[in-house]
């Protein structure tokens, strides 16, 4: 049961990141238009990069971008 919940959470996160034109499917056009498509691929295929993305510090990222 908990695995099903985790899958739903990740799927929701993917849809939030891509923001597809249709709410029930993601097309290649949607992937190409999204600046976060690389992160979606990492979520699906590279656990280490996904964990780095999930545990990043937004304040540190903002501070680095200002310098």
TrEMBL record:
<dbReference type="GO" id="GO:0000159">
    <property type="term" value="C:protein phosphatase type 2A complex"/>
</dbReference>
<protein>
    <submittedName>
        <fullName>Uncharacterized protein</fullName>
    </submittedName>
</protein>
<dbReference type="GO" id="GO:0019888">
    <property type="term" value="F:protein phosphatase regulator activity"/>
</dbReference>
